[in-house]
Write a structure and sequence with these properties.
Elements lengths: L6 H10 L3 E3 L11 E3 L1 H20 L4 E3 L8 H7 L1 H4 L1 E6 L6 E3 H9 L8 H10 L17 E4 L3 E3 L9 E3 L5 H6 L1 H8 L5 E10 L14 E11 L4 H18 L7 E5 L11 E9 L3 E12 L1 H10 L5 E3 L4 E3 L2 E7 L1 H12 E6 L2 E6 L10 E5 L6 H12 L5 E3 L5 H11 L3 E5 L1 H6 L1 E6 L5 E5 L3 H10 L1
Parallel strand pairs: 3-9, 19-20, 19-21
Antiparallel strand pairs: 1-2, 4-5, 4-6, 7-8, 9-10, 10-16, 11-12, 12-13, 13-16, 14-15, 17-18, 21-22, 22-23
This protein binds glycyl-adenosine-5'-phosphate.
């Protein structure tokens, strides 16, 4: 990361190169909604693929799940979301703008007020003159009130209260309500986990910072069920695993830290929560992912509300218990912003500025570009054949237009780790030039070894 990375720069870059667009842009856009373009979707898929590979496929104690977004409304009663999934909303009477009361207070005074009651927040706002409406400087605020973040809709044609349903605000509850199904159908034994990725929705009062906080976003969550008493050890284990996941994918350690939630600020279900935070140059330290010890709260709540027995019978000891849950919960949108910011570099090369995305090859949208030095035959056919050979393995790009230097620069910006150039000598010596994105070094290798060599360097 260089000092020059600003949010404006990243947003403009993402649009120019087809990573992320403002949603519905031709209609003026809609706040907090974004679309992933051709390069963006490849990168986001790679992030999700890496998470799934490491969390599910490489383990024999985790299975996957894809639960519905619209669940039975009782789920949200049992989980506590209906009564407690609120942000504190304050409205400025002068500008008619609405703000998150805790953010407004924190930004004006530096006080930490998350978790305080609406009454307490109202009192602070009323008595502290430093707290002003950021738009017009006014101090005419309505009393703070809780605002539930769940999106409501209706099932069926009748918009009646009995038909109200919610878009899930987290994927986690899908795992808890399927705990028994998974136990009965997949021969898992505690300790084991259920992993899921998919869309979640929150009617955030103040979304912002591009794809960092949006109202529609994706989550990647693991609910790992453990025997009570072993939970603290498993917590440490998953904290370490998740930390290593980020660093093994190239995220700069200096921009990562752990943040321990103070005991008095923990969510209602949590015994301990530690966030893995990333230092975004435009917003400082911010949560990338939270690791929570959710205890037996959710299973017990669902057992009580559904009447189902959600205990686990341990055949080895003959004992039954409700497992504790360790939950690493992150989101690919926010991770993608961190990986992009971390990899974005502008450097001087021979008097010119080179913009390069030094992404880990596993995350790079395009893994290799095949660049024939000329459009003419027979060079073009040799290059096309190589492209055909590689493209089944991963995303490959074929580019035969423009000066070769320009073509390299385009791939540098896209984060493509390898460019393979086919030239006139290839016809004689059956070799091609492989250029490394980061070092810009070039190596001549036999054309029939390209597939294996690249595979080793990308996935090795
Ligand atoms: N099940 C626990 C849970 O949902 P969370 O900290 O609210 O915990 C987990 O969310 C992760 O989901 C966050 O660390 C973040 O990566 C992502 N996330 C949450 N809200 C988001 C939003 N509005 N926009 C983008 N990502 C979000």
């Amino acid at each position: 990361m260089t000092e020059t990375v600003t949010m404006d720069k990243i947003v403009a870059f993402c649009k120019r190169r087809g990573f992320v667009y403002q949603s519905s842009e031709i209609y003026g856009g809609i706040r907090s909604s974004y679309d992933y373009g051709p390069l963006g979707i490849e990168m986001k898929r790679n992030i999700k693929e890496e998470w799934w590979r490491r969390t599910v496929h490489m383990r024999d104690d985790v299975v996957g799940l894809d639960a519905a977004i619209i669940m039975h409304p009782k789920v949200w009663e049992a989980s506590g979301h209906l009564s407690g999934f609120n942000d504190m909303l304050v409205e400025s009477r002068s500008s008619k703008r609405r703000y998150r009361a805790d953010h407004l207070i924190e930004e004006a005074t530096g006080m930490e007020v998350e978790g305080l009651s609406p009454e307490k927040l109202t009192e602070i706002i009323d008595h502290d003159d430093r707290i002003k409406d950021p738009v017009d400087g006014g101090r005419d605020f309505a009393p703070v009130r809780p605002f539930n973040l769940m999106f409501e809709t209706y099932t069926g044609p009748v918009k009646a209260p009995e038909n109200v349903v919610y878009l899930r605000p987290e994927t986690a509850q899908g795992m808890f309500v399927n705990f028994k199904n998974v136990l009965q159908t997949s021969r898992v034994k505690v300790p084991f986990g259920i992993a899921q990725m998919g869309k979640s929705f929150r009617n955030e009062i103040t979304p912002g910072n591009f794809i960092f906080r949006t109202r529609e976003f994706e989550q990647m969550e693991l609910e790992f069920f453990v025997e009570p008493g072993t939970d603290e050890e498993w917590f440490e284990y998953w904290l370490g695993e998740r930390w290593n996941w980020y660093t093994s994918l190239g995220l700069n350690r200096e921009n990562l830290r752990r943040y321990e939630h103070p005991k008095d600020k923990l969510s209602h279900y949590s015994k301990r929560t530690v966030d893995i935070e990333y230092y975004f140059p435009f917003r400082g330290w911010s949560e990338l992912e939270g690791i929570a010890n959710r205890t037996d709260y959710d299973l017990k709540q669902h057992a009580a509300f559904s009447g189902e027995n959600l205990t686990y019978f341990d055949q080895a000891t003959g004992q039954s218990y409700v497992p504790y849950v360790i939950e690493p919960a992150g989101g690919p949108d926010r991770m993608m912003l961190a990986f992009l910011v971390d990899a974005y570099i502008e450097e001087e090369v021979r008097g010119e500025t080179r913009t390069v995305l030094k992404l880990h090859p596993r995350l790079a949208p395009i893994k290799a570009a095949v660049l024939p030095l000329t459009k003419k035959e027979p060079v073009a056919s040799v290059a096309r054949d190589l492209y055909g050979e590689l493209k089944g393995d991963y995303r490959v790009f074929y580019d035969d237009s423009g000066a070769i230097g320009r073509r390299y620069r385009r791939q540098d910006e896209a984060g493509t780790p390898f460019c393979v150039t086919v030239d006139f000598d290839t016809l004689e010596d059956k070799q091609v030039t492989v250029r490394d994105r980061d070092t810009m070094e070039q190596e001549r290798i036999p054309i029939d070894s390209v597939r294996e060599r690249l595979r080793a360097r990308i996935y090795g």
